[in-house]
Amino acid sequence: MFKEKECSRVNGFIGLLLIIVLAAGGVFAITMQEPLPVVSGILIISIAVLLLTGLTVVQPNQANVITFFGKYLGVIRESGFYMTIPLSIHKKVSLRVRNFNSAKLKVNDVDGNPIEIAAVVVFSVVDSAKALFEVDEYETFVEIQSETALRHVASKYPYDSVEGAGFSLRSNAEEIAMELSDELQNRLGVAGVQVIESRLTHLAYSTEIASAMLQRQQAAAIISAREKIVEGAVSMVQLAIQRLEAEGAVELDEERKAAMINNLLVAVVSDRSAQPVINTSTLY
What we know:
Blueprint: E1 10-11, H1 12-31, H2 35-52, E2 55-58, E3 62-68, E4 71-76, E5 80-83, E6 89-94, E7 98-101, E8 105-108, E9 114-125, H3 128-133, H4 138-154, H5 173-188, E10 193-205, H6 207-247, H7 254-269
Antiparallel strand pairs: 1-5, 2-5, 3-4, 3-6, 7-9, 8-9, 9-10
Pfam families: Band_7 (PF01145)
Domain Band: 53-217
InterPro entries: Band_7, Band_7/SPFH_dom_sf
């Protein structure tokens, strides 16, 4: 397995100065028009041209990977102008932080419901040797593995937890994002890529079941609201009866308590405003 290492080099300006001196000396030798100096001049110029192939410029946040006839020599990470071994091949790898926005994927959640999901992955290359030599086109590798990991994580959880127990894709976005990042790091580590962050950018039911699931969500919301209203109404009725009995304002037998509870519950729980009815007679 390849691992990033530093490549030997010299300052590029010193190397350029050496090349200029050699080229000037070679031209001067050729102008002497004698057989031995001419041959020496041609040889010196050839050496200067050979050294010229070793010059390279490294931009900020960029790695320059050096290979020599198929042999990995190392990498230059520090920005600047350098001269390395002549006839070597220089491959540049960006170390900048980049984003990958996945397409909207159609996946079945753990309950078998078709959903649409997409994510953004923030990553950077931390090992240029692995990025170049361990995988073929690491950027394509990141795209494919990101979508594969997203499908895998989405299929492990329901879109929404009806019972409120366990993780769901909609209610536990932070936990899902952390799990997605961990799985991506395990997959992309072989390519020398570090996953900085991953987030879901789109989550929805697929169009063929969206209306049915919306009705289910609305029904669940109505039931939850009704439970809260009934709980509050019962507390209000209990408080009203306790205060009436404590203050001695009126004595209520069991039948009157039942009638009062019925009237109060209907008034509080009903969807419509209660219409008051004045009773001018007794209950009996």
